[in-house]
Queue: 2 jobs
Job 1
Amino acid sequence: MTSDDSPRVLRPVALDGGALVHTAADRRLAAEHWLLAAHPTPRQARTEWARHDVALLPLGTLFSAVRIPGRLVQAVAASTNPADIDPVLAEVLDGGPVICDPHGPRYYALVPGSMPHTWRAAADDWRVADVDVLGRGTYLGVPRLDATELTDAGTASYWSVPMESAGVLCAPLAVARLIAAGVHQLAEDRAPWPTDPPLTRVP
């Protein structure tokens, strides 16, 4: 492995009591390495990040993803503004990582690689709500870890909820509750929520 593939790892900071605290930069670097490990050729994925800001990573090994239509998430947050939506997702999913694709829009909750198998029955039921559990045989466009906001152009995928630490994923039960809340809210709304309203940025 060349030096290009092995960025310098920051050392933990020692507190007076002897405990070690990893810095945010250290945790982000570890998360980056963890994501790259999902690709059979990590160097290729790193190049895609550098050139295109998004890398295609295979699902079903280190992690899988639950694709949730924007209208479900927006109904839970009662907003189309990412400034409102992103904190709601972070709270409901207990900080589990979520990628937003503004086209649609669609949200991808990163979950354990086994979820397509262990939650198969639920996944079948969710299809009527346009929710898909994506695993082996599927690739996901994963943005760089520093892409944490909707761009002015509003076209690039970003981390609606950033991955704060390597291997920390959304709990399947929390994702299931989010989906159930969205479905319930859409059914209860007196004024029908638009099919796929675009994300809006309010200054």
Job 2
Amino acid sequence: MIPLSLALVMLLLCVCGMVAHQHQRCVAQIASPGRGFPLALMSALILPAMVLYGFLGHLWDWDQGRVDHRVGYLLQKTINEDRLALESEPANPERYLKLARSHAAGGQYEQAVTVMEQLLARATPQAAWLGLQASYLYYRDGRAFGEDARARVEQALSLDNTDVTTRMLLANQAYLIGHYAEAIGHWQVLLASHRDDVNRTAIGNAIARAEARLPDAS
């Protein structure tokens, strides 16, 4: 608390000094106000406000060990709320999933992987969870399939060969590297399934685009 108090005192002294300096300049120009007077007055009001905003803006995350400054304020707020919700309901799988998705939305794939690992250690693994963690591992490693991601994919498909998250991950990766026939194969597995959570229209369009890129397509 001492460093924080000292910083606040120094900040207030700095602001007061700025205001006093600008006030003297304004008083000196009141007798013959010109273009400089409004500018000086605006500086006296705006500059201290900017200094305060720049400092106080960081007080919102004072209790975070490390904050990813690339994440926007609103998203970081959501992550913090999801973390608190998880702490209040550590046995609720949905809390883990929501926090992991929030981390992933901010590009924090390492944190998302960690949250999913915690969930998989607490509850019986499900194919969708394994596929989701495989996706986070894939993006964490720069859109590359490492050993960990491949292991999760194999686990997921062993539990559910038609898991949407896992099959979509494999199809998208195959499409991106030009393996269009392989991508089509993964999408067709989903189309042939009787799942209700499959967007058949979108998958049909994706298959059509991939077929148009096949070497023998004309």
